[in-house]
Amino acid sequence: MKKERGITLIALVITIIVLLILAGVSIAMLTGNNGILTQAQNAKSQTEVGAEKEGISLAYTGAVAKKNGNGAVTDGDMDEQFGLNGTKADAEGTNPIIVTFEESNRQYMIDENGNVTGPLKAPEETPEPETGGSIATMDYGVIEIKWLLGDTNYVSETPNAPKIKEDLPEGTTMELVKYENSNWVSGTDYNYDENKWANAKVTINGVESYFVWIPRYAYKIIYFSSQETKAAYLTNGDTSGIIGYSDSRGIVDKEGRKVNGVASTTSLNVGDYFRVHPAFMNDSSNNYENGGWSEDLPGIWIGKYESSLVNKADSSNINTNSSTVGNIIVDSSNNTDKAIAVQPRMSSWRYCTIGNMYTNAKAYATNLNSHMLKNSEWGAVAYLTESKYGRDGEEVTINDNNNFITADAGISANPEQSSTGNETGIYDLSGGAYEYVPAYYNGSGSLSNGSSFANGTSDEFSTAYTETSASSAYKPGDATYETSGWHGDDAYFVNSNNPFFMRAGVYHSGSNAGVFYFSVNVGNAYYYSSFRMCLAVK
After folding, report:
1. pLDDT at residue 127, as a whole number
2. How far is CA 343 from CA 170, 212, 310, 515, in A?
3. Could you give the CA distance from residue 326 to residue 308 in angstroms, rounded to a whole number?
4. What is residue 94's DSSP assignment?
5. Which of 32, 405, 519, 528 has its CA 20 to 30 A from that of 469?
6. Mean pLDDT to the nearest integer, 72-89
7. Quick check: pTM over 0.85?
8. Are 415 and 490 in contact, with CB atoms under 8 Å apart?
9. What is the pLDDT of residue 176?
10. How far apart are CA 187 and CA 179, in angstroms?
């Protein structure tokens, strides 16, 4: 009799295992990160993105042709072209214009030259964090930066190009300059990845002043338990020493819980809880309490040096060594033979009340929105200086010139005194003279020295603080509570006896001076105090 053959249990098990393996491989080939279905979906998305970009470019070209040189393309022009082309998209904003497609919900940006960027990752509202957190120390931190597109809250790989205003009154010019052969000449040579910041020269009736571009950005501060754990993070990315953050949630511990005893504040999250710096933000709905503006800005121009007083006829420096000389107002009807200058190797303008400094700064160039550097703007400079785009955690060297000479012996001789460690940066941020900023405690009865702005409420050009404790008065981005005491810098908060803020320290402050230094005064015409200019070009 012929013996029948059957499948043994072992063979069956092996067969099933082989089939499962083949099935797993097939599923992975279909659905994995590099699977056929995934690649097909990616290809479909790429095709859609290409078509959407092409639709934007087509509409922009049509809008340019219709404008025929009569002004810049607007969001209304784009919407009109979308209607004509049958493109289901909506345009919004100016410089840049943001385009949103109805079906895909993808968003793109068009700059003033018609370049299309995207798809963009939309910012999000940060949810209110839980309470109950604590951070043992905030002395050791790293500031990280994300650039933002134009005047939007969309993240960019590159910083905004410096904004130059050309339609200026006769006698006033503004141009980009670069440092070449120990001189400033027309042209551009900036690269923020290489710590080279953009510079501009403003000339008003023959008097030159220099400014440095701070592009719009979002920031996050990461706190560490010690200098060693901070160094480990910077060296090899070791995150084990992280104990908390200052970001779009406010001041939170490692678990994201709001730290007890600190004023609550949340803001827009542009990704990974990065917070848009208030110095660039439309803050009108918040009554300007965080030092912002009536509109969003793509960046600000900061005085490269402390301000000086000069004779208008020949730009010669006036040594303001008494209140008789320094405590004056310079405008179209007062002291018309004198002017503000922002130049190296000048004695800084001192012996002027904080209120007169404020008035002089605003009168410098109203068409450029000139003003006295605000506390929020000081913070914007300090944070960029501390980041990898500036000194990368290294402290700015003090200007210890006891004659209050701006940039000390000259920018080439002392590049370590700048925000970048080279000639393109901002000088006198540590030492030199104290620098008044138009920020004050509004519970004081002694605000007369700042009567030109200190009326009890914040506005576009000044900031009122309602508390005398840095933690309870916490304003993000102003480089007070968030970075208090960094690099050993002094930290004294405003109060009823001394209601006005001063920054930087003075030439004899030693290691206590620096970009994170803040102290207080009554705002009088003081031998040791100067101020810094800022331009908000809109």
Report:
1. 84
2. 22, 12, 10, 20
3. 10
4. S
5. 528
6. 93
7. yes
8. no
9. 98
10. 9
